[in-house]
Amino acid sequence: MLGPVASATGQRAVDAGAEAGWWTWRGPLGRSIAATDAFAPTSISAEHVLWQTPVPGRGHSSPIVTHDAIYLTTADTQQGTQSVLAFRRDDGRPLWSDVVHRGGLPTANHRKNSEASPTAAFDGSRLISLYYNSAALWLTAYTPDGERLWQREIGPYDPQTYKFGYGASPALYQDTAIVVSDYDGDSFMAAVSLSSGEPVWRVARHHQQSYSSPIIAHLQGRDQLLLSGGDMIASYDPASGALLWSAPATTMATCGTLVWDDDYIYGSGGYPDAQTACVRADGSGEVVWTNNQQCYAQSLLTTSGFLYAVTDQGIAYCWRGADGELMWRQRLGGNYSSSPLLVGDRIFVINEAGEAFTFRATPERYMELGRGQVGDEGFATPAVVGDTMYWRTARDEPAGRQEYLIALR
To answer: Which CATH number goes with the domain that contains 349?
Structure first.
């Protein structure tokens, strides 16, 4: 099963099968970094599409990739359904689908959100989906071939002040799935057994609206569950939910997932303020530096001691991680919800209009490698396994908007 162990680099060491796939949100190391640099293109465009397959409904969840399958969640607001979809990895042919919920979809949502935004997760034998439905959060577990194992209501999620929907993906740790419910009510974070769906632990959170996903990191010799939101960056014990430390950083509402290296943890938000922050990873809660740049929906990316971002205003930045010194900035243009992805020394990022940019991960200067158009929408984040990139997009067609799962090479 997927469970992090000690790593000299501060990253999660993972099951070999997970490293050969993309089993959870942000991939095998939790950092949106491909395990190899076998994906060869220096830029991506429609000319790189290996295959494409229509996806019913609408969703912003990202694909997860196993040895032979790709899984997505989706929602059909007209039919009032939320579903899990499985596709064959080599050619995109549909394998199976299951309606997880019929009815109970939220009646209000943010225009940049969807009713299927959390990315599914796989632990090697079970597929986990997370949905906001009937004013609560629900987890459903499947076998890889679509047999439903269990379904559980995890707890309430019923925001009143900001009815913008839900977006946090589940984190997997050992034999548990961890879910966060941050809103202006009985906020909580909880872990349930992957085997049965029964509760393992539950802790209260701040009563403020936020949307970020929890993530597991191995830092300072121990596993830590990292989460932003509620005007803080916080670390919890993933085995018990106990708070390890917190730091007054970022903003009330964040959507991006925290990133880290050996020495620092980085986050950005949000609402009502704009802030990117660096916190020392030694458990002291020391805020090392901040600036006023905003990556609200999209996550940051860190590698080799430098922090990369594409802000809400469409400007790419590189900062030195240790002190926040600006190395370079470059206007790309567009709005961003999809997070940057690192393959080797190449950073891929796609804006909401489906325009893809590739630039070198170097602090020396902005080095663009290429740009191209891939679909007409870019809300999901790509996954790269081996020599192939998998991505969810949509196109404006004569019959109306149509989503696609595509493979690029």
So the answer is: 2.130.10.10
Task: Supply the range of the domain harboring residue 187.
Answer: 16-408
Q: How far apart are CA 23 and CA 365, in angstroms?
A: 33
**Residue whose tokens read 């970022």:** 250
- Find where tokens 């499947």 sit: 142
CA distance 258 to 247: 13
* Count of structural domains within the chain: 1
- pLDDT by residue for the chain (409 residues), tens digit each? 444 433 333 334 445 566 679 999 999 989 999 999 999 999 999 999 999 999 999 999 999 999 999 999 999 999 999 999 999 999 999 999 999 999 999 999 999 999 999 999 999 999 999 999 999 999 999 999 999 999 999 999 999 999 999 999 999 999 999 999 999 999 999 999 999 999 999 999 989 999 999 999 999 999 999 999 999 999 999 999 999 999 999 999 999 999 999 999 999 998 999 999 999 999 999 999 999 999 999 999 999 999 999 999 999 999 999 999 999 999 999 999 999 999 999 999 999 999 999 999 999 999 999 999 999 999 999 999 999 999 999 999 999 999 999 999 9
Query: Is 145 within a domain?
Result: yes
Alpha-carbon distance of 97 to 88, in angstroms, equals 12
pTM over 0.90, yes/no: yes
Residue carrying structure tokens 């694909």: 63
Residue 8 domain flag? no
